[in-house]
Amino acid sequence: MKRLLIALVVLVGALLAADYGTAALAESAVSRQMRAQLALTDDPDVRINGFPFLTQAISGDYRSIDVSATHLSVGPLREVEVRAQLRDVNAPLSMLLGSGPKSFTVAEADGTVRIDADDLQRLMPGVTKMRIENIDRGTVTDLVDEGGRSSLLGIDLDSSARVVGTLTVPGIGEKEVAVIASFLLDGRDILIVPQDVRIDDGHGDRLPLPTTLVRTLSDEFGLRISPGTLPFEVTPRLLRPRDGTIEISGTIENMTIGGASPLAR
Q: Residue 238, Cβ neighbours under 10 Å: how many?
């Protein structure tokens, strides 16, 4: 009995090692193909979900694969992060591990692109030390109580944020400027629309400004970004500030990796 148990343990260990080893080889093959697809300098992170892996590999059908990459150049942007979950992937193991060209299909994928504050700052000459902060209902209520427009109470909090940056304010000098901005989609373009502009008075308070100065500073922070085609040809559906970044999400269907271009919906 003891020998049988030892044999079973050895067998299970061997199967697990084979499963993880084969999964690692397949993930590496997918990663290399994604590197070419996205024109990356480094291989992206790839994780094939589901256990055991070998049962999926034998059929060539994978329930989901997670892909993530950073430092992508997209249009005028230089530090884009992309994450995607590929679902119902068809990729024969012999093709993945073989020496020939790699091509596999994806029934559906959720793609998310993130743009950080440094990338935004690069597009706003004269602005430094930029950051993006989430806001809540209390934030806009306080601004209105402090002299802000009552229309602020009607902005969509899910697609709005406070953008803070330092720049030279005409007639005042270098100041930290805080802008409540709405982030909107216009087709594939990203719009940043200032709704409220304040400057730091040096004592931690952010003061309302004269209308003429608000217009001048709004021009500094207002922006249209035309990134062109996003990674995986994601068609933007949802845009929201999140965790100090701008996050754009979309769904892709009937995508071919390593062959024809993906179709987005």
A: 13
Judged on CB neighbours under 10 Å (0-12, 13-18, 19+), 92 is: middle
Q: Which residue has the tokens 């409540």?
A: 180
Alpha helices in 110-179 (DSSP H): 117-122, 137-145
The amino acid present at 218, given as its one-letter code, is S
What are the b/e assignments for 97-119, b being 16+ CB within 10 Å? eeeeebebbbebbbbbbbbbbeb
Distance of alpha carbon 170 from alpha carbon 174, whole angstroms? 9
Closest CA to 262 of 236, 233, 230, 229: 233
Highest mean pLDDT among 49-53, 63-67, 155-159: 155-159
- According to DSSP, the β-strands at 223-225 and 206-208 are unpaired
Number of H helices, E strands in the chain: 6, 13
List alpha helices for the chain, DSSP H: 2-38, 53-59, 93-97, 117-122, 137-145, 211-221
Give, as one character, the DSSP assignment of residue 125: T
The mean per-residue pLDDT over the stretch 11-16 comes to: 40
For residues 223 and 209, the model is more confident at 223
What does pLDDT average to over the chain? 80
Q: CB under 8 Å to 241, separation ≥6 — which residues?
A: 132, 134, 159, 160, 161, 183, 247
Other C-beta atoms lying within 10 Å of the C-beta of residue 253 = 12
Is the full-model pTM beyond 0.90?
Answer: no
Least confident of 39-53, 101-115, 160-174, 216-230: 39-53
Going by C-alpha positions, the residue among 133, 135, 93 that lies closest to residue 117 is: 133
Instruction: Pick 64 or 102 by higher pLDDT.
Output: 64
Planar angle of CA 257, 102, 92, nearest 5 degrees: 95
